[in-house]
Automatic annotation (TrEMBL):
Native source species: candidate division KD3-62 bacterium DG_56
InterPro entries named in the record: Polysacch_pyruvyl_Trfase, Polysacch_pyruvyl_Trfase_CsaB
A Pfam family it matches: PS_pyruv_trans
Cross-referenced PANTHER family: COLANIC ACID BIOSYNTHESIS PROTEIN WCAK (PTHR36836:SF1)
Residues annotated as domain Polysaccharide pyruvyl transferase: 15-304
Protein name (Swiss-Prot/TrEMBL): Polysaccharide pyruvyl transferase domain-containing protein
Length: 369
C-alpha cells in the first residue's frame, strides 16, 4: 500500500507565498519519493487539487480531516509561519488542534520548515509548548525560530534548521514568461525592471500614519530611481489586497508604472522575478523568489522572519515598514542595482544551499514513515 502524508498549512487562500511553500513540498516529495500520496488540507480544495495535482480535504471539515489522518502514515504541519499570533490568535489554535487530532490517532507528526513566532499571548505560548512536546520531528526555516522554541521551553525532539520549501520550485519556461510580459504590457527588455511588492501588515507597528509613510516614502524612492536609473517600475501583488496598496503607491508617484493584475502560479512569479534587475519587497517569498533567480533583494521588514532571511544572506533590511526614508531607500536600491552583477554568484550559491536544506525537510519526513 502506498504511503500517505496529510499536509496542514495556510493553503487555498490565494497567498502566493504559501502556495509556493506547498508547491515546494510537492516537488520535494516527487523528487525523493514519488510513490508517496499527498493529501492537503485546503480552504479551496478543488482549486488546490487542480493547481498542485494532489488530493485535498476541506480544512474546515474536521470529520473529513480525521478520516484523512486515519488513512495517513504522517501529518506534516507546515511550512510557513503557522505558529504566530500577530495576524490572529485563532489561527495557531487551529494548527495545534490538527496536530492533536493526529497524535490522538497515534500518527506521527512533523513540524515542517516552520517559522515560529512572534507569540505574544500566554494562552498561545502555553498551547504551543504543550502540543509540540508530543511531535516526532521539528524543522524550522531560521535560527530565530529555534530561539523562540527555546524561550518557550518546548521539550520536544531536537530542532533542525533547514530552509523554506519554496526553494524547491522550478520557474516557469521562458516562453511562459514572455506571454506574461506581453499580457501585462511590460517592457520586453526587462534589464532595468524594478519589481516591487507591497503588503499591508498587522501588529504594534501598524497604524494609519505608518501606512501613509509607506505610501509616500516608497513612492518618493521609486520616483528617484525611475528618474536617475531609467528603471521600469512594476508592482507584483502576491495576495488579494496587495494590488490596492500598490495602486495607492503608484498614484502617489510621478513616474509611470504597472501593477501586475493577473493571478499567477508560484513558478510563474519566480520566473517573472528573474526578469528584474532588483526586487524591492515586503513579503518574504518575494525576496526568496529574487534570490532563487540570482536577483538582488532589497527588503523592507515588517516581521522578524524578513530580517532572519536577509541575515542569512549577510544582508539587512533597507528599511522598517512604517519608518521608511525615501532618500535612504532610493540610495539602497541604486546601490543594489550597481552591484547586481557582482552579487549574483553569491545569491545563486545561497539559493543552491537553501534548496539542499529544503530537501532535508522531506528526508526527515520520510524517516518517520
Amino acid at each position: 500500500m502506498a504511503r500517505r502524508v496529510v499536509i496542514s498549512g495556510y493553503y487555498g487562500f490565494g497567498n502566493a507565498g504559501d502556495e509556493a511553500i506547498l508547491a515546494g513540498i510537492v516537488a520535494g516529495f516527487r523528487e525523493l519519493a514519488p510513490d508517496v500520496q499527498l493529501v492537503v488540507l485546503s480552504a479551496t480544495p478543488q482549486e488546490t487539487a487542480a493547481e498542485h495535482g494532489v488530493e485535498c480535504v476541506d480544512r474546515a471539515r474536521f470529520g473529513d480531516i480525521g478520516r484523512a489522518i486515519d488513512g495517513a502514515d504522517l501529518l506534516i504541519s507546515g511550512g510557513g509561519g503557522l505558529l504566530q499570533d500577530v495576524t490572529s490568535w485563532r489561527s495557531p489554535l487551529y494548527y495545534l488542534h490538527v496536530i492533536r487530532l493526529a497524535r490522538k490517532r497515534g500518527k506521527p507528526v512533523m513540524l515542517f520548515a516552520q517559522g515560529i513566532g512572534p507569540l505574544r499571548r500566554r494562552l498561545i505560548r502555553t498551547a504551543v509548548r504543550w502540543t509540540l512536546k508530543d511531535v516526532q520531528a521539528i524543522s524550522v526555516r531560521d535560527r530565530q525560530s529555534v530561539e523562540e522554541l527555546e524561550r518557550l521551553r518546548v521539550a520536544g525532539p531536537p530542532v533542525e534548521v533547514t530552509a523554506d520549501p519554496a526553494f524547491l520550485i522550478s520557474p516557469a519556461s521562458a516562453g511562459r514568461v514572455k506571454d506574461i510580459v506581453k499580457r501585462e504590457n511590460l517592457s520586453a527588455a526587462g534589464g532595468r525592471r524594478l519589481l516591487v511588492n507591497v503588503r499591508d501588515w498587522r501588529g504594534p507597528t501598524a497604524s494609519a500614519r505608518a501606512r501613509a509613510n509607506l505610501i509616500t516614502e516608497l513612492a518618493s524612492a521609486l520616483d528617484t530611481v525611475a528618474a536617475e536609473e531609467k528603471a521600469e517600475i512594476v508592482f507584483l501583488p502576491m495576495q488579494r489586497g496587495d494590488a490596492d496598496l500598490a495602486g495607492n503607491v503608484l498614484a502617489a508617484m510621478v513616474a509611470p508604472g504597472n501593477v501586475v493584475l493577473g493571478e499567477y502560479s508560484p513558478s510563474e512569479i519566480a520566473a517573472l522575478a528573474a526578469t528584474a534587475g532588483v526586487v524591492v519587497a515586503i513579503r518574504l517569498h518575494a525576496l526568496m523568489f529574487a534570490v532563487m533567480a540570482g536577483v538582488t533583494p532589497v527588503g523592507i521588514s515588517y516581521d522578524p522572519k524578513v530580517d532572519a532571511f536577509l541575515g542569512s544572506l549577510d544582508l539587512t533590511p533597507a528599511a522598517q515598514v512604517g519608518e521608511i526614508d525615501g532618500a535612504g531607500l532610493a540610495a539602497a536600491i541604486r546601490a543594489a542595482m550597481a552591484s547586481a552583477a557582482d552579487f549574483r554568484p553569491h545569491l545563486l550559491e545561497a539559493a543552491g544551499r537553501q534548496r539542499e536544506l529544503a530537501l532535508e525537510n522531506v528526508r526527515m519526513a520520510l524517516a518517520l514513515m
